[in-house]
Design brief:
The chain is mostly beta strands.
């Protein structure tokens, strides 16, 4: 079998909860308020154990496919997500395919759509590139038609709204590159999804620069708009606001080079740095994939990496912790054993409020490392009963049994920032976006569904309140692509039963904030039922109201509000201690905030 590659997407708590409970005769049935990691939702009550079937509920017919890239998206607008897979890897030139959801949570054994062209396909990403409201598909092509020694490309298929895409790409890179992975994200803050490409092929020593193609009016250019200064080998790229300044930074995995992050200065009048502002300090270990997620609830995204020891290194899964927007140089956690690591992704599967790590290897089982509130277990607590050559692990609610339409994230404008991280990921759909109560048209923003990042076409004015209502799920199922041509792709269903009735069980009343301590902004988070009257405000130590964040009826659901360390007049507050006070139908909770 030929050599090949892979990638995907992707302590103690630093927050405090101060809770006051009303007397029983005044108590209303409300769920416990829960802190969310900065991208994935936290749910209450929790589930017992890992609620994931060990045996796949669906296995596609193999058909000789060497499946690599994978993702979920509602391609036909029927409210159900479809399974998208890119085949080929460095083994064979094959098609991109779709398995269309039957509208009841079932997937067909054979593809319902296939591309007309074939290539050595790597990983893929999904989002609305041309702004027509339909999901489009970008795919990395690792090798050219002649195979090794012949660079590939990246390409774009437009969604057709009927469960598939254009039969052939409408765009591809104008110059060839060894591109095993792609990532969509709005890097320049214009409300359009731009394309980042991993680059380089290490087997035969073809180092390359990373590339970004800026989206202008719904079109990508033939030539890159940005290239990294360094030349090397990267199998994976992903976008994330690593330093919490409101714009997307670019991260790349390192094969025989180091993992690295290029910081975004567009909000400061600059651009994407061409020199990495962070590089991992440990020995490069052939990283295949990287994924960001807040593993310790401090409001900052931490970096998980899957190393592969096919060519060297230990092949462990590991996490670089983020402290106040800065990643540590060496891993804060590593798995106890190594191997052909191929993928990592974050998910709060047991709904206990912290993110667990899903991981896969070639010729191995899917495994889950549980977050116990103080870190990840070094050995997996769950493994699938099946083994395959795992390529990609991706989450969505395929049977819609946990789908909710009560997500609400409220952010504060500063005149420059155009990105909003929603309080859940993946996000199925954005229901509305308002700025100071005025609705925005769909053409004025774009969502990256897998990460829950919303990009606005125009920066809200300083102090403007940006409210985003969205649909998400608390019951995520797992899709898995596999490049063993004798096996199919897998779907593992979430089998969890919530401990108690989640919508009605009275479990107290609390409020949580992260990051805390804060430098520029913090997010206050609530999950629970609605109330007829509620208020959320920031007070100083003298009891003076500094800023009102909410006043009036409280919708139930997954809610978050941002405080930008300013008062009602937009004045930056002095460093010190503040309190967020939340009152709803007689219940009261406070959180101590430390402003640095």
């Amino acid at each position: 079998m030929r050599r090949r590659r892979t990638r995907t997407r992707q302590a103690t708590r630093a927050w405090a909860i101060m809770e006051q409970r009303p007397s029983p005769d005044r108590r209303i049935p409300m769920r416990r308020l829960a802190l969310l990691g900065f991208a994935l939702c936290l749910a209450a009550p929790a589930r017992a154990d890992m609620p994931l079937a060990t045996t796949p509920a669906w296995t596609s017919t193999a058909l000789g496919h060497v499946a690599t890239g994978g993702g979920w998206a509602d391609l036909d607008g029927d409210g159900w997500v479809d399974f998208v897979a890119a085949n080929g890897n460095d083994m064979a030139r094959q098609t991109v395919v779709v398995y269309r959801n039957n509208g009841a949570g079932g997937l067909p054994l054979a593809p319902t759509w296939s591309s007309s062209d074939i290539d050595y396909h790597g990983h893929l990403d999904l989002g609305d590139v041309n702004g027509d409201g339909l999901i489009d598909l970008v795919v990395g092509v690792y090798l050219g038609p002649a195979g090794f020694g012949n660079p590939g490309k990246a390409k774009l298929y437009l969604g057709n709204g009927a469960g598939g895409f254009t039969p052939t790409p409408v765009w591809s890179t104008g110059t060839p590159l060894y591109c095993f992975s792609v990532a969509l994200g709005d890097v320049n803050g214009d409300g359009r999804l731009d394309l980042a490409c991993a680059a380089g092929e290490s087997y035969e020593a073809h180092p390359e620069r990373l590339r970004v193609y800026l989206n202008t009016g719904g079109s990508l250019p033939a030539l890159p708009s940005w290239e990294s200064s360094d030349i090397g080998y990267a199998l994976d790229v992903t976008w994330c606001d690593v330093d919490l300044d409101g714009d997307l930074d670019l991260a790349a995995s390192g094969e025989i080079s180091r993992n690295r992050v290029y910081f975004n200065r567009y909000g400061e009048g600059g651009g994407l740095d061409t020199v990495a502002g962070w590089t991992s300090g440990d020995t490069p270990s052939y990283a295949n994939t990287i994924a960001f997620g807040d593993w310790n609830g401090d409001g900052t995204p931490d970096l998980a990496v899957a190393d592969n020891n096919q060519l060297g290194g230990a092949g462990r899964f590991k996490v670089y912790a983020n402290t106040a927007g800065a990643l540590g140089a060496t891993p804060a956690w590593q798995s106890s054993n190594g191997g052909y690591g191929s993928h990592v992704s974050w998910v709060d599967l047991d709904l206990d409020g912290d993110r667990d790590l899903a991981a896969g290897r070639w010729w191995g089982a899917v495994r889950l490392y549980e977050n116990t509130g103080g870190g990840l277990t070094t050995a997996p607590v769950w493994q699938s009963s099946t083994s395959s050559v795992i390529e990609n692990l991706f989450w969505e609610d395929v049977d819609n049994d946990g789908l909710l339409s009560n997500g609400l994230t409220v952010a504060v404008g500063d005149g420059a920032r155009r990105g909003v991280q929603l309080a859940a990921a993946p996000v199925r759909a954005v229901l509305s976006v308002t700025v100071d109560g005025t609705p925005l048209a769909a053409s004025e923003y774009v969502l990256h569904p897998a990460t829950g990042w919303l990009a606005l076409a125009a920066a809200p004015a300083p102090g403007a309140q940006v409210a985003v209502a969205f649909r998400y799920s608390r019951d995520l199922d797992l899709g898995c692509t596999n490049w063993d041509s004798t096996l199919g792709n897998y779907l593992f269903l979430n089998t969890g039963t919530l401990v108690g009735a989640p919508e009605t069980t009275p479990l107290g009343f609390s409020l949580a904030a992260a990051p805390n301590p804060l430098r520029a902004r913090t997010v206050l988070r609530y999950r629970g039922e609605g109330a007829g009257a509620a208020s959320l405000a920031i007070f100083d130590l003298q009891g003076r109201r500094v800023k009102s964040l909410h006043a009036g009826a409280l919708p139930g659901g997954l809610l978050s509000w941002e405080w930008d360390a300013r008062d009602e007049g937009g004045q930056r507050q002095a460093a010190g201690v503040y309190f967020a006070r939340f009152v709803a139908d007689g219940h009261e909770a406070s959180v101590k905030l430390i402003l640095l």
